[in-house]
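Many introductory courses stop at the sequence. We go one step further.
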Amino acid sequence: MAERIGKHSEQLKTGTEAALKLPFFFISDVHLSIHESPREKAKLSALCKFFDHINDSGGTLFILGDFFDFWFDFGENYPLQFQPIIEKLTELRQNNIAIHYAAGNHDYWIEGFLTRKLGIIPYPDEISFLHQGKSFFLTHGDGLLQNDYKYRLLKIILRSKLAIFLFSLLGKKIVYRIAAAVSQSEKPYTEEKLKTMKDHAAEMSQFLRKIWNKGYDVAIMGHIHEPTLIIENGRYALILGDWVQENQNYFAVWDRGVLVHKQWVNL
């Protein structure tokens, strides 16, 4: 393993020009889990091929939260089901592809193995920076809905040092069994769920428009799972969409001043 794997650059800073390699790849809400269902195996295969594509293209990868359906740092003692994707993340870093990771509500606890051993650059909330005259705002998006009062309180509790310490006492097997038991990622979307997603996407689209008013040209988030792209006057607002339902596999690419929203299809 190359020496640089164990190191990462400093976090990108608001209002500061970032020396980043193009193209930029954006992905969120993959929700990789320890379930070994046919859908999960297909998702893992597609994601590995997508990362191979990034390896071939070069550039920079931005993960905007909930990449894992659950992640808690136990060092190198992570679930074996994640081994293929850990290997792909390692290959990206070995090829000097920077990975910037904004924490989500399912994978806030990424500090540790992923950051120290793989050199992934973590952010507790949003990522913002300048690049070639364009201003970027990136976030997972949890807690931004107007009526998320209870969740915002829960978020403070779950991110506390006490909560992290108590989780660590339970050990990997128990923690991941609890996470798998409460996971919703394997359940198909109901009509009610789809309607709620559309309503939330409409609200968050207005939030992203407000981000434009703060001087940003590109505003991207995840969390809502409802893919939505707005382009106005050369500015972009994007809710990425997810990799949860079969054949969704949404991602975005920024290159040559243009943002393109795509779905990954294995070739």
